[in-house]
Amino acid sequence: SPIPDYLQSVWDTCAQNVDGAVADYIPELADVDPDLFGICVATADGYLYEVGDTRTDFSIQSMSKPFTYALALAHRGIEEVGTKIDVEPSGDAFNNISLERATGRPSNAMINAGAITATSLIKDDGAESRFERIRAAYSKYAGRELAINNDIYESESQTGFRNRAIGYMLRTVGILEDDPDPVLEDYFRQCSISLDCRDVAIMAATLANGGVNPRTGDRLLSQPLLTHLLSVMTTCGMYDAAGDWVTSVGMPAKSGVSGGIMAVLPGQLGLAVYSPRLDQHGNSVRGVQACERLSRDLGMHFMRVS
Ligand code: GLN
């Protein structure tokens, strides 16, 4: 099939790019091989195409945010979640300590303040802890059991002062209703879930496939919630580079500081790129480049009018 050859040519071009730097504010993330680079495409009917380091584990980091937000939406409904988390792009960095003046709401669930709030909206149900519910939900999107990387979690928890500041701020304005500490630990845990490029591609393909995992047939998200989620990913998923991303790539997406980018072409496919060197926004340099190239070559921009 010509697809693997094509993906290989994209990989070859982008692999030359050594711009950017690996995230080091979480010590455990700094240890990674900066040259790792994988690209994986999963079609909405579950076929996988992969090139490069698609089987190397990394932590999900902020690519967890859409899935916890989805779980919060499913538990509480769009309206109730909306009283706690807005749906406006902030134009600020992912870890900005900014809350809406009148209500204290974080701008959206793709930045840390909103993501920590989304985590707080998941309650343990007696049988399962909040984190276990989150881990189990991500696993269903990936179609296999995912686990936490404890070294990342500990590193993240030991150095997460800024996220703690955000959590305490959220508590002061009443957006968090309980003790922020356990919420923050679960947020650190969710960011430390370990997966590979193929898992991310299948998670994205599940979103592309109307919320049904194409490999397991599990229905994980209803249509109105999925539309809501993809909209927020479109406007907010790439942080303060969202505008650039939407114009040049044109797909709902989410990045993480470990170097992953997940993009969704609704009805068609999920795309995952992993490469740890980041640009100044915290998005993978090669990841952005590969997605731009794929979008252009394959006509994947969702505003493409032919
Ligand atoms: N765990 C990271 C943090 O909260 C996630 C940030 C990210 O991936 N952009 O700082």
Count of separate DSSP helical elements: 12
Which structural class should the secondary elements be placed in?
Answer: alpha+beta
The second-level CATH architecture of the largest domain is 3-Layer(aba) Sandwich
Order of helices and strands: HEHEEEHHHEHHHEHHHEEEEH
Categorize the overall geometry. Answer: globular
Our count of domains comes out at 2
Radius of gyration: 18 Å
Just give the CATH class of the largest domain: Alpha Beta
Give a short account of the largest sheet. 5 strands, antiparallel
The hetero molecules present are: glutamine
CATH topology of the largest domain: Beta-lactamase
Strand content: 5-15%
Low-confidence stretches: none
Q: Please give the share of residues in helix.
A: 40-55%
Number of strands: 10
Q: N-to-C terminal Cα separation, in Å?
A: 26 Å
Average pLDDT for all residues: 96
**Strand order, largest beta sheet:** 3-2-9-8-7
Blueprint (SSEs and pairs):
Layout: H1 2-15, E1 21-22, H2 27-30, E2 38-43, E3 48-52, E4 58-59, H3 65-82, H4 112-120, H5 130-142, E5 147-148, H6 150-159, H7 161-172, H8 180-191, E6 193-195, H9 197-208, H10 223-236, H11 242-248, E7 253-255, E8 260-265, E9 269-274, E10 277-278, H12 285-298
Antiparallel strand pairs: 1-10, 2-3, 2-9, 4-6, 5-6, 7-8, 8-9
Bound molecules: glutamine.
Glutamine (GLN) binds next to loops.
